[in-house]
Amino acid sequence: MPDFEPVLTANLAKPDGHRLAVYEAGGGYRALRRALAELAPKDVLEQVRTSGLRGRGGAGFPTGLKWSFLPADHPGPIYLCVNADESEPGTFVNRVLIEGDPHQVIEGTILSAYATRASTAYVYLRYEYPLALARLEAALAECRAAGYLGRNILGSAFSLDIFVHRGAAAYVCGEETGLIESIEGKRAWPRIKPPFPAVEGLFRRPTVVNNVETLACVTHIIDRGPAWFRSIGVPPDPTNPRDPGSFGPKMYGASGHVNRPGWFEAPLGAACRELIDRFAGGVWKGRRAKAVVPGGLSTGLLAESELDTPMDFAGPVRAGCLGLGTGCMIVLDETYPILEFLYNSCRFFAHESCGQCTPCREGTQWALELCQRIRAGRGRLVDLDLLAEIGDSIGIMPGTTICGLADGAAWPIKNALGKFRDELEEHIRTTNPSGFGQTEPVEAMEFAGREPRMNADERG
Ligand SMILES: Cc1cc2nc3c(=O)[nH]c(=O)nc-3n(C[C@H](O)[C@H](O)[C@H](O)COP(=O)(O)O)c2cc1C
Ligand code: SF4
């Protein structure tokens, strides 16, 4: 990993790093002052586009390109939603940023609202983040008092306010159109797209949804320039015309079977193994890793032999995962049964499916029930084929669902089966020696320990 100066996390270790005075003493709001005095909104957008910034919320969509989809001649209002729902299992870096340095996120939000001509921004904050809520509300109050928010910010013609909207405590609330529905006061059911939010989003107006860390990056791009941002990370792959590269710093996290769980900042593209060894103290108890979830449960699994994969937007995809996701890794040591990973993953997605799409609602539940059957010692080898069929048939990619939650449910299944099938087969053979080869249909209700199906209200 090259020498690297952390910027996103620079304030986190400072005493009172969340307060305005400390933020300003470190150069905070310098970028905003300069942008409002010297740059037109289109110049800010152009700098973000040139920087190559890609969204940190999971999909890695180029931020400047997303902003350019807003209709140029819209009379307004235009809205900006800050996605701080952060419900992806194993992921916590947005919380750390908001608790430790809320002004960095707010400055990026104001700059981004200026670039997109948004007049109101909403921070959609995960319900279970009370300290982040308190810090954010206090920081917004400091900004209003200091003239960074409100009418005619710093004497310019630009006006903006930012409101915090507490999340509705479901994973699907983080999906951008589910989030929009939730802010509108409805159940967070993702919308069919198109229209995309840039055309018709919050209150049916053009809307940009960006992740907390994406907006924090905007602060530094405007402060230090796009060339600085592009000097960090991984350039586009010349053999792949669709790869725009992975530029800039990234906040990574590590949890699970490591010696020092936590967050850290590194250039995009650092190897998964190096990040775990260098920042998280390596795998615990002197063991080896069996697998690593690269960036939140929905991204799937890297096997131990794939841990030199670069943690950029392209690396985990090349290794057969859904993507980089949030960059928050979950380490499973060599003793941890893959069946338990699979079961917990299926349990989570079956619980979180909003139920609108039949393949997602039924598929996630049946995948869970198959795992339960295997765990109860009644598994058959054909159950793995059934699981594989579910994994291949739910999601936006096979084109059967409205949102990506189902893709996120599918990837752990696909990777567990694709990379650890031998272990799963061995488990089935050992725990069901007389029935593992059965192929005839089995009554699902028969086996013990089946958890009751959830109804629509329980799904939320
Ligand atoms: C089920 C689901 C949950 C999601 N949860 C989050 C989340 O908690 N935070 C987030 O930033 N993006 C989340 N996303 C991605 C958002 O839909 C959206 O792509 C993202 O907020 C865009 O921001 P970015 O371009 O800055 O990455 C989720 C997507 C899906 C399908
Ligand atoms: S894919 Fe699943 S979570 Fe997404 S809208 Fe369909 S049922 Fe709901």
Word description of this protein:
- A hairpin with an 8-residue loop joins strand 9 and strand 10.
- The model has no long low-confidence stretch (mean pLDDT 95).
- Helix 3 packs across helix 6.
- This protein has 17 helices and eleven strands.
- The chain is globular.
- The chain is α/β, with parallel strands linked by helices.
- It folds into three domains: 212 residues, NADH-ubiquinone oxidoreductase 51kDa subunit (Rossmann fold); 88 residues, Ubiquitin-like (UB roll); 122 residues, NADH-ubiquinone oxidoreductase 51kDa subunit, iron-sulphur binding domain (de novo design (two linked rop proteins), Up-down Bundle), CATH 1.20.1440.
- The strands form three sheets. Strands 8-7-11-9-10 form a five-stranded mixed sheet, with helices on both faces. Strands 3-2-1-4 form a four-stranded parallel sheet, with helices on both faces.
- Bound molecules: flavin mononucleotide (FMN) and iron/sulfur cluster (SF4).
- Iron/sulfur cluster (SF4) binds next to helix 14 and helix 16.
Would you spell out the secondary-structure blueprint of this structure?
Layout (H helix, E strand, L loop, with lengths): L19 H6 L4 H9 L2 H11 L11 H6 L10 E6 L8 H8 L1 H15 L3 E6 L4 H17 L14 E6 L9 H8 L23 E5 H13 L1 H5 L2 E2 L11 E2 L1 E8 L5 E6 L4 H8 L9 E5 L8 E2 L11 H4 L9 E6 L4 H15 L5 H18 L5 H13 L11 H27 L24 H4 L1
Parallel strand pairs: 1-2, 1-4, 2-3, 7-11
Antiparallel strand pairs: 5-6, 7-8, 9-10, 9-11
Flavin mononucleotide binds next to strand 4.
